[in-house]
Amino acid sequence: MEYILSIDQGTTSSKAFLMAMDGSMHKGVSYEVEQFFPNPGYVEQQPEQILSSVLMAISSTLELLGSEDKVISIAITNQRETTICFDKASGKAFCNAIVWQCRRTTPICEREEFRSRESLIQNKTGLKLDPYFSATKMKWMMEENPRCKEGVQEGRLLLSTVDAYLVFQFTQGRVFASDYSNCSRTMLFDINKLEYDDELLTLFDIPRQALPKPMPSCSDYGAFDMDEKELKSLGLTDDQIKVLATIKGVSISAVAGDQAAALFGQACIEKGQSKTTYGTGCFTLLNIGMKPQMSKNGLLTSATWSFDGKTYYALEGSVFQAGSVITWLQKEMHLISKPSDCDAICNSLKDNGGVYLVPAFTGLGAPYWQPNAKGIISGITQGTTSEHFVRAGVESIAYQVAKLLECMNSETQVKLSEMKVDGGICACEFLMQFQSDITHLEVIRAASDEMTAKGVGMLAMLTIGILTSIEETKYLYASSDTYSPKMKVVDVNRLIDSYEKAVNMVVN
Asked: CB–CB of 97/47 below 8 Å?
């Protein structure tokens, strides 16, 4: 059989899948990517660990191949905004990657030279001026890191998101390119013209030659060509290197940021269709067709996939803390032993006991954009138990998503009837039902949790001609469960009003 090798480099782990031509997915071992928190609000990763974790995930997945099986194409999807600074001669990183969650560049965003250009930034990029995006991370690296400064002076500096870094490494530096969906999250990219903007490059003092070439998601990004010496330097074993040799020369046929890939994987290919991915953060995207629309309600506008000369756009709302709330409950608060405990605990309570969590651990994203916000728990009484804390944490995820959908409805005047969902914490039945209740929407859970990997794999199938049109992707989509609203509207409104009061204590 023939397969697409689909790579998903996420915030906390790297995975690889063999995607069959019928859309079925086969995964090997996933490898954790460690995060570092050197200062409050700082989030970092080691680029070499990102790369090695991807290669080990690929190796474990390729071991699933039978003697008659063959990989015919490679596809890459990735955490977006995370920024890597590295040497174009050696490919070695000058410093740790600054992860999308990192808030260290808040002071840069607060400089008058940038605050005075907020409208310009949004009109060209579709983004808010916020530490979330790559431009201020790049600027911080060049201002604060001596090695990056030296790299700029010597013309050796490359700045990129994770996708372009992987492509560069896979092709031995022959290709340094990023797709439009990743470029559109840098805050340097004009989404109307699909190119870096000279005015923004000057504003942030980013050299154009240090950035990857923008390309459509469905393109030839070169072939996998890493040699044994490179792989050994990254800590791979002889057996792993032998396995990786089997894909040498296979072309990288698609690249897309994780949320664009998930939107495509969910077959949200028509204007007005929406999906939410519940991962470390939570990301709700609404397909707005082939013309960008600037938000007036704190949402973002991004390019998604590009095929056959056409680029599609989405309105997006970003929730910074989703799965990370569950991790916090487990590892920091020690209120659960494993994520699956949440269902039983939440269902054991008749209600939330009036307890609300606003998880502004790294500020608040859409629609508030408050980088300095701090989290709170409100409504605590003598009768509050640890179970109420858990339920408040799970419910907080749904409240944040509901707010995004409210903004999207207001923005587009399109009344959604359903929302497709995917991601690891979708396994929480309580969360899915509660999400349906407070949004008054049918929530349709995908049959696979891995829609980012599936989506970029489907894009690769378009590139190499296995699929001949975007419409054909509908036949590769499959759902598992549907959740319909059960809660009375009056109760929904009461809960949302109470949560908004808690949020107002944070943002005001």
From this structure: yes
